[in-house]
Amino acid sequence: MALYRFSVSMHARSAGRSAVAAAAYRAGAQLRDPHTGLTHDYRRRRGVLGTEILAPAGAPAWATQRASLWAKAELAERRKDAQTAREIVLSLPRELSEAQNTALVRDFVSTELVAAHGMVADVAWHAAHSADGQVNVHAHLLMPTRRVEANGFAAKKAREWNARELVVHWREAWAAHVNAALAASGVTAERVDHRSLAVRRTEAEERATEARVHGDEETALGYEADAHELARPPEPKRGRAHPLEARGVITDQGALVREIRDERTRRRQLAERLRALVQRAAQARLQLGERLRQGLTPALLASLRESNLGLAVRGRQPGLALAVGDGEQALAREREQRREGIERHRIEQGLQRVRAAMRRDRGRGIGR
Q1: Eight-class DSSP state of 14
Q2: Closest CA to 104 of 53, 180, 27
Q3: Distance from C-alpha of 361 to C-alpha of 88, rounded to nearest angstrom
Q4: pTM of the model
């Protein structure tokens, strides 16, 4: 399924980070840092699918050369605690091909960062193996904190790029770009959402309540399944535990990540089971209606009028009581009724079991 990730971080000297080192590592290149005199060589790095530097129209040639771009970015900062680069990490949909993901990132960067704000972005597409054994394709966008000018970077930093509202806009815009790319490629079921789990869960709960008020139990149960799946805790980062876990060393942070992933999988499976039961109930209802329609011949309709047939609705499950004498058609309909009643009873039992499991989760406080 398509996953959403849009994380923003800053590279600062106070944390011992170098923009040149970061650029070399993301691009799998060799670059020299003029601020420290160190050379960072990551040419043997694996998993780099491609790199590209996108700059505003009219930018000088040095701005599109990785070595000169980041050397000037480091030299433009004089403070020992200066922030030298901004980084955005994007998760790319597995449903899209490598060429489609490349175009997706390029379109977002060109529109939202370069054209709109005059940024220079050093883009690297990466592929890594994820916990589920599949390939995790993502992109790193590394951007200097100043605008480019003819001879170097601007004397003042672009402080407006630090605005929280801008990051919120970027997050929403990235979701829109991903969903548009999925739709254009013919993927209909998968979409991403930039909002937090808590916001999405609250919305699902409100829609479930609204649907139930209007008597639409099937829709309400669908939203209830969404809310239960979204009630999971967010997955924490492994941080410094990641290299230890990669070498087979079990850490507390890694164990917590695995526990939350297991909880997420269990919630998803439970929600999918509820959705499947709701779909079965809807199909059974439609099939019953179709069989009733096909069975009501003109002769049977006349007989029903004469016998003053009553229609009964019990709870949420419609039931049909037939009293048309001893005719073969009436007996066939009654047998069909019993079969439909058994199927609805099984579905209702399944729904009750799933909803009971959801209530137990809420009782334990999972996801709060």
Answers
A1: G
A2: 180
A3: 35
A4: 0.72
